[in-house]
Specification:
- It is a single chain.
- Helix 8 crosses helix 11.
- It is elongated, with a radius of gyration of 30 Å.
- The protein is built from 19 helices and 22 strands.
- The protein is α/β, with parallel strands linked by helices.
- The strands form 6 sheets. It has a 9-stranded mixed beta sheet with strand order 13-12-11-10-16-8-17-22-21, sandwiched between helices. A 5-stranded antiparallel beta sheet has the order 1-5-4-3-2. It has a two-stranded antiparallel sheet with strand order 6-7.
- It has 2 domains: 293 residues, no CATH class; 218 residues, Dihydrofolate Reductase, subunit A.
Amino acid sequence: MSEMSEEDHVESFEIGNADDASDGSAIDQPVETDIPYQVEDQQTNDITAQTLQSALVENNDQPQGQPTQSQAVSRPGRSILADIPPNIAQIRQLLFECADRIELSVTEFERFWPFVDNVWVKQRTNASKSGRCTSEYYICRLRRPTVRPQQQQQQQTERKRARRRTVREKSMCNVSIKVVRNEGPFPGIVITRTPGSDRHHRHDLDHIDKIKRNSGLMELVRNEACKGYLPSSVFHKLREEPNKLAAAGGKHLTVTDVRNASAKWRMQNPDVELVPHPGFQYQLGFGIVKVQQPDQQQQDQQGDQQSGEQEAAPVRQLPPGTLPFPPKEFSLDFLDSYLPPPAVMGSKPQYPHVTVSYASSMDGRLSLTPGAQTILSGPEANLMTHYLRSRHDAILVGVGTMLADNPELNCRLEGAGGYGGLGRMWQPRPVIIDPLARWDPRPETSRLMQAAMDGRGRPPWVIVAPNTQVPPDRVVRLKGHGGDYLCIMEVRPPGWRLRWQAILHALAAEGIRSVLVEGGGRVLSDLLSAEHAHFVDSVVVTLAPTFLGAQGVGVAPLPGMGEMGAPIAPVDPRDVTWTFLGKNAIMCGKVGRREQQHEQGTQAV
């Protein structure tokens, strides 16, 4: 394999290479002046975009690649960076760190990956025998040295100027990732860290942007320069939006980069006279200078700018029901000490962190009657629940809750996957306790499956008991959408009920590090009983100011037994805090370390 990949080579137009202009003029540096390409006198320098339009219309024999009238002049108020995603800075940072597993659709990957391809260098590609799965392995660009052997440097001819290259030491950054492409009816991209990779980069994203420009930004620059504009004019136009330019990775963009991007087009179209953008003028000795526009033209520019923003508006539109995040009226910092700890790379816990969260009435009821959907949380508490979902890998409910409420079991916070975020970020994996396989994963009737198909959540895992006969069409339908049935072989009498030890151990084996248990009544009562309470790490209970009556469904865990046969409380939270959110009171508590609770539970029993 060659030491330098194909993406490292950029065609040069008798100038320095763009990748090595790390010490040149950046956004916060003085602007480099530019001499127009094929401009002979001052009269030609003052050519306008309208003159170029008429010249192109009269010339019917256009050479290949020459811009048409619509290509040569763009609307003056149209931003060059109007087509970049609004949250591109956050997305680039996530794809730079790759700290957690990232799941993307093919469309999202093709749209966002070009803006970070300056970070990663492909090493090899492996394909499965069926051809439906392809694994690509990437390393950080700063992992390999760029020092050429001295003999190769001496062999360079005197006519060709040597490229300025930043000398890097070997093994500077040892971060590597794996990109898995899954083909089929529901294709997708999964990005994970590879074994042996360092946990963090030894540099930041800005350092990479200084060394090499990403292809996503350079493609936008190339498209604008190929419309017949001066490279320095394109550069000045980009500098009008410094925040957007820096977010897209162009903080260190130079005029040389713009020249290199349009070099091939300029060689194919030598007869095209380059012009500045409307509102700019080339002045000999000063370069590109912005001129004062008439009031009417400024109004036209504002109108074009508004129309350009309207064209990009669909990217910013969010699905109905999106919850604004972070909230401005209240804070959720009181939950920090009860949330799962940060994941440690390489560690595989035996059981995931378990958080129990539910809403209850004043008399401890979850609903008015069995199977009746009852709303107890206000808007503030509802947003808190979705925040808890975003901080857990999975959300677990019983089949009774699925049949009664038909929930989506997703996170609707603004910034989550499907709600303005990247891929399925912040979206937990739904886990359904369904021993007899009563729930039907039909998208026409299930809101959960519909949300998964729309990219607003993940497909569920359904836990069934041994010897349960699941209809074949349901298995095919669920697996076809990315879900699965998990058969837990360990059971306990009476009634062949599933064991929590086996359930949590199976989820941990599948990579689930944290689980949020939300209901229903039988699941909560069984998990909070004295026999299984040692699996719980924290409890978050939302108390509503209402009474639901004796017919309601409640949480009633079985107590433990003391030394003399006296009953003891199954759960006694510690570090308890009370917080008011709207009409609800939130009780948070820690159940304690699992080892200590297990010893206490064994002694109690």
